[in-house]
Amino acid sequence: MAAGGAGLDDVTRVAGRPAAVNRHRSPVTEIETGLYAADEKIYPRAVSGWFAAWRWAIVWTTQLVFYGGPWLTWNDRQAILFDIVHRKFYIFGLVFWPQDIIYLAVLLIIAALSLFLFTAVAGRLWCGYACPQTVYTEIFLWIERVIEGDRVQRMKLDRGGPSGRKLGLKAAKHAAWIALALWTGFTFVGYVTPIRELWAEVMTLSTGPWETFWMLFYGFATYGNAGWMREQVCIYLCPYARFQSAMFDKDTLIITYDNARGEPRGSRPKSADTRARGLGDCVDCNICVQVCPTGIDIREGLQYQCIGCAACVDGCDQVMDKMGYPRGLIRYSTQRALEQKLSTAQVLRRAFRPRVLLYTAIVWAIIIAAAIGLYARIPLKVDVIRDRVAIAREVEGGKIENVYRLQIMNTAERRRAFDIRVEGLHTIQVASEPRVELEPASSRLVLVRVRAERWAAQPGTHRIDFSVSAVDAADVAVREKSVFTLR
Length: 487
Description:
Helices cover 41% and strands 19% of the residues.
């Protein structure tokens, strides 16, 4: 769904904005198109309203979770810690090991399907409200407004000549941006390195090379993306903007401009009789453009640059209130609703279409299955490896002995003792120490010698089962199969 606008005889559009016009054309029409359209700086205007309040509520929620998460404690340790060095990942009372990668796969599947679901229902909700690029751009813009002023003041400041006041304001703004960006980088690394230890290292300037690199790298990325690139990330770098239309249909809620109600647009005093003047409700104030973080004009139709933040909806509703017109000239609606003049109730009913119901059912089925799997998860893992050096050997008494290496992982956060037993052949038994103790959230490689009488079975390989169980909890037990060689 491309944006409307001037014809190709007048202008070539790149990324929804006009590029340079070839004013010296020969009789045969030729259009020169640059590989990249130079964009003017966008100065989004502050806006208030229902959607802006929602957006800021999500900003506060996500940032409280992000900045506060690594400072929480659980069982005398950091509550959320991805300890890559020791290959253990702590999330409150859960400890995940590399063998639990299935849960990461499930999480990614849920995230992808949820994105499809939300996009099918209401377009780019993720982009407009919860995407880190949107969230940090909103925070950086707020800092900019506090220091330099709103849209008009910022434009005037940038267009003015050099001065001490301008230098001071710019320095203060960038200092605040850099401080926030560095704190963001510090917090990011604090999820990998215990944040209290990291803070002590930062205070004594003794951080390791990798910690220093990632703090500076993530801080620089935050500063560059939210402070400088802003909408360029959404328009040129983010692939979601390009393939989102594949997830839309005529019943997807999107930001729309009611062309039939708004056109023909034109300015007028509040007391003017719009019908007598032949005007629509759009007063052509351009507020919808001024508040847009990507600088598009939603009145030209849905464009891939639109991130669905609904700032234009809040801005237009404020103008409609001042003019005494009904709200909703720009609103969340669907293509079908605009074409067929559907009511709000009809629009909402069509939102629960088979595609949406299927996505919802799949997402919830995976969530419930994952929750059940986590609830029934046994805090013990065992891997059995046969000793390849001495497959089978004869020992005292004529018995045959096989040697195994058991990798036992105690994923619980308490010290535990485990009994090792073996079954599957007559007279088979563990000849080494049958009990082993493990520290909380630790693993241990145990050498296990297993013996059986030569006459217990025919020569060859036979299946056996190792059983490892906690002494203090009968339900914490794991069985792993292997083979025993008789000769």
